[in-house]
Amino acid sequence: MAFAGVMILASALLVYFVSPWWLLFTAFIGLNMLQSAFTGFCPAAMIFRKLGFSSGCAFK
Question: What region holds the Inner membrane protein YgaP-like transmembrane domain (predicted)?
C-alpha cells in the first residue's frame, strides 16, 4: 500500500510538472488497487514477496 501511495504521489507530480497524460498512470494505479481489494491479487505484492520483502501490518 505504501508503494501504491508513493506511485500516486509521483504521478501527481508528473502531471503537474510534465504532462497531463500522466493521469493515465494514476488511473491505472487506482484501478489496480480497486481490483486487488476485490480479488486479493496484487502483482506488486507478488514481486515484493519474491524480492524478500514481508507484507505490511495491514495484511497480518
Answer: 2-49
Domain hosting residue 43, numbered range: 2-59
pTM score = 0.74
Q: CA-to-CA distance for 55 and 60, rounded, in angstroms?
A: 8
Distance CA 32, CA 5 (A): 12
- For the stretch 20-55, pLDDT in tens is 999 999 999 999 999 988 998 888 888 888 998 877
CB count within 10 Å of CB 22 equals: 17
**Contact in structure between 2 and 53 (CB atoms under 8 Å):** no
